[in-house]
Write a structure and sequence with these properties.
The protein is an all-alpha fold. Helices cover 79% and strands 0% of the residues. The protein contains 16 helices and no strands. Helix 5 (83-113) packs parallel to helix 15 and helix 8 packs across helix 11. The longest helix has 31 residues, at 83-113.
């Protein structure tokens, strides 16, 4: 009797298997984006992949990063549902490396380079200047702290949904809610919107990560409709150039998240390559492990080098920045572990 083998659909937990890889790819893409951004700022014209990255990828890896953060937090909350411990662990993990890097970096910037003084230093350190004048060296730390604050409420809304239709409606409502807040700010205070839109427009994708985290935790299959949406994101990206900022940011974010899903599926299919698969996996996981410290370090080193007239749009300067950032990230990671051990 002949039996027909049915091809098993990939399940959402494939993202969990390769989350470290995806975090590593995301931080590498963020560093590349800053290189591409400097090429534009300093009018260093480069065609090819630089032009493609500027037009289509841009800073969307930050959206992927937030998506993966929300995804991972769903697992964390399911395993350890104590909210007070959740806040303690998360804020300790994010704020220690932030202060280790931001305090000396802002001391240099506000006391030695710009000479703006104590008031500017505390304004920058507390992120007040992000709202008033768009000081964006460490804006991601403020955004992820806000996401940590609201996460238990997002988790409860998604986790307690009685069925799949309710889950989908709740993520749509969350997406709409945060998008409407952005619209209100844009209409009522354009200067505030201009200063903060790079953070405001990314909160929905953190919520989406939590939503997919539930699908992954329950090992649900990736449906055909998901592939249709990913194809639609590829189509939408063609119209992002010259579009309004909200559509441009959202279309790039959906494309990036689609890429995350496809990369995870691709890695799962390459398991039979054995050593090659494992080596590539470990390489990206290393960057994922130190992604927070690498972000903080490279943003700081990049800013200092730009202020001294060594922008990273030139290959030599970029390599120097990356090398210093890696060393600094390793040092900060070790210091963070010592401080965490002392606190606990």
């Amino acid at each position: 009797m002949n039996t027909v083998k049915t091809r098993k659909r990939p399940t959402w937990d494939v993202i969990s298997d390769y989350r470290g890889v995806l975090m590593g790819i995301s931080i590498i893409c963020i560093i590349i984006f800053h290189y591409v951004e400097d090429c534009g700022i300093y009018h260093v014209h480069k065609n090819g992949w630089v032009e493609f990255f500027r037009n289509y990828i841009t800073s969307s890896s930050v959206d992927g990063f937030l998506f993966l953060s929300g995804f991972g937090l769903y697992y964390a909350m399911k395993k350890h549902p104590d909210i007070s411990q959740f806040y303690k662990r998360r804020f300790t993990r994010i704020l220690i490396p932030y202060f280790l890097i931001a305090i000396p970096a802002l001391c240099w910037n506000d006391f030695l380079f710009d000479k703006t003084g104590v008031k500017a230093f505390f304004s920058d350190l507390s992120f007040y200047s992000f709202f008033t004048r768009g000081m964006s060296w460490f804006w991601y730390i403020l955004l992820i702290c806000f996401c940590y604050l609201i996460f238990p409420f997002i988790f409860r809304a998604i986790d307690k949904a009685p069925d799949e239709e309710s889950e989908q409606m709740r993520i749509i409502n969350l997406f709409t809610f945060f998008t409407m807040i952005t619209f209100v700010i844009r209409l009522s205070n354009k200067e505030l919107f201009d200063n903060t839109n790079l953070a405001l427009l990314r909160i929905p994708f953190f919520c989406l990560g939590c939503f997919i985290g539930k699908y992954s935790y329950e090992k649900r299959s990736i449906s055909g409709g998901t592939y249709g949406l990913m194809l639609l994101s590829l189509f939408a990206i063609q119209f992002r150039k010259g579009s309004k900022i909200i559509f441009a940011r959202y279309s790039a974010a959906f494309l990036n998240i689609s890429a995350c899903i496809l990369i995870a599926i691709l890695f799962s299919k390459l398991k039979h390559f054995g050593k090659i698969h494992n080596c590539i996996k470990k390489f990206f996981e290393w960057f994922g492990k130190y992604s927070l410290e690498l972000y903080l370090a490279h943003v700081t080193v990049r800013g200092v080098m730009r202020d001294y007239g060594h922008p990273t749009c030139y290959g030599r300067n970029e390599l120097i920045m990356v090398a210093i950032s890696i060393v600094l990230a390793l040092i900060v990671n070790q210091l963070t572990k010592w401080i965490e051990h002392f606190i606990h």
